[in-house]
Fold these 4 entries.
Entry 1:
Amino acid sequence: MVEITYQMVLSTLQTAGILVGIIYYIFNMRNQQRTRNLTLRAQEQTLRTRHATIYHQIMYPALSTAGMKNILLLQANPVSSFEEYQKLTRSNNEFYVAWLCMCNLYEMTGIYLRQGVADVEFFAMHQPHWNLRFWRQAKPIIYKLRERLGPSHYRNMEYLFDSLEKYLEEHPELKP
């Protein structure tokens, strides 16, 4: 028969204590990992909500009644050259105001995008066909205006549309 000694009991208790400590450590680490994952998901959701709110605030002027009138006016008066643009802006002040409103809206959106405050994904999901059509029409005009006004004229607008085109290439399911 095995004789139980004080040393054996002490050794067994130490081993059991170490095992309990290891199990506690493992459970604690798993719990911390779950908490970290939940926190990360919550932060990601908060960021997406922030981007959506900012995008809505940026686009509100275009979604308002006055913004819709500007969009309709621009759609009704497409320009294909700088000369047409000049003629139209000189003869139709409402067109010029609508043009400036849209360009400045895109310029601000480009600034927010460049600074990481806004996300191009929201812009890509909201009327990309109209936005790109406007950009393709405005691009040669803006390039021509840069000759007089300097290279920074609507550069953030260009950044926005370059980012949009790149995003749409990476996500062809959103392409117009």
Entry 2:
Amino acid sequence: MIYLRANTYLVYIYMNTSEEDTYVVPTSLVMRRTICFYCSREFVADLHVLDYNYGIRHCELHRAAAHRDINAFLHLSGYVWLRDACTNEILNAMCNYLTMSVSIIRSNGDISNGWQIYNGTNIEHKYIRRINGSWSMPMLHTSGITKNVPLDSFRLPQVQTANFAVLNSTFYELLEKSLHILEKGLYESAREQQRDKLLATTQETAGVVSVMTTSGQHTRVLL
């Protein structure tokens, strides 16, 4: 009797939940049906995040919802698109300083010259990321090496000394304000918009399952 009541309650929620009352989370786009993740109508586009095979498939009606849910996912995961950072006056001004050649501290403690902000063609180079609790900027060395550089490392005295000719007091004021903005969350409003909604499960393609390879990677296969 309890089982039947639980099922009845779940059916009631499902039947009384409109498409506007739900949100979705990004998932693998590999071998997914070509339908909107929100309403199962024909899709018009994929929104990619973190990887070109990962994101949300949506119809025209749910384009705005997909953008909201991508941003909410980034907020929870500790990522900020560089393109979105550049729409914020403080973050953009801070980033402009890092387009110059600056010095950073390497993991071995050495100071390394010739680095600048990098917005590369690979999708993984297009984010400011929280790594081990520190917001880190994708940067490129003149040799072609890329590295996620913790922004708070620019506070270190030895790094400030190495950059005295290019980074002035205005940069460090912008740095502190930028770290505060990043910690608060550039996409905070997107996550807030999800709070009164129910999570919708993305429909699985018949015969497709997720498995883990011997290297520890998740992949999708057709049985």
Entry 3:
Amino acid sequence: MYYIRKEFIHFWTISEYCLFLLNEIKSHAYEHRKNYVYSAGILNLLWESWNKFWRTLWLAYMIGGIDMDKNKILPLYPQVDEYQAIYRVLYLLGKKNTPAGKIVASYQEPRWGDINIMHKLSQTLRNPGPGNKILNAFSVLGNSPKHLQIVRNAAIHLDRDGITKVKYIASCYRISISKIKYPTDLLFSQDLATGKIVFRNWIDELVAFLQLI
């Protein structure tokens, strides 16, 4: 049984904890590399929690669970287990040729929190399923999930390509490209649209989005 509301509360709790830790880093003004190491770990924690929420949501609707309002969900595929359901997700995403099968390990799972995967599954599982509500919520969602993923990936897999992608999205924030030595430097700049510190703005937007579904 998959509990969407419970997973939302867990994500909200992790988000607040990440905010606390990032504010600690900001207030202590650590040496640059130390700042990067700490903030990369925090950002990864947030990203993994975001992915776990979406994994729980889709599996709840596919094989059974409880929704955000504590109502029991009538599963779309009650006859399959978790590994079979994830294989079917891969089929819906166009990554398998048949819906029948099962994955053998977690490394085969999709990137649940990826905005493109969220959107494609929402379009596929519209009725029955949560897709329509999620697609409507997308209208108020900005770049937070996409930018979170870009910065997280660049921070964890530190290479030139990752830094290039971070610099590409820097125009959305109040920071000079020349000031970006590590991907996580972006977290402590300001969002141009809201004036908030980036990590605060991302979390506020992600939590507000989930509350709409």
Entry 4:
Amino acid sequence: MQQAHLHLIKYALSQGHNVSVFDGEEWDVEHSTKYTDIKECSECADDATLEVFNTKGESLGSAYVLLLDEPEETVVDYTVTDFMNSWDSAYEATR
């Protein structure tokens, strides 16, 4: 099973959006469309926040990522927005 945060990154990028990553201290990756950069930064610490933006720079939602016990349950909380609900439904369909 694919880890939730990786599915979220791929889902956002496939929709033409970009992602920023807050590592707990700073926004290490901002408005990126590069999967590898986003993935690496989101996994550089035990926790991070992913924020998804559309091409106009408007936030579509954010997710708190925790890399501990359950590998597939890496998204432990997310904002309730249309985009994030759509992602959650898509992710659940893969389980």
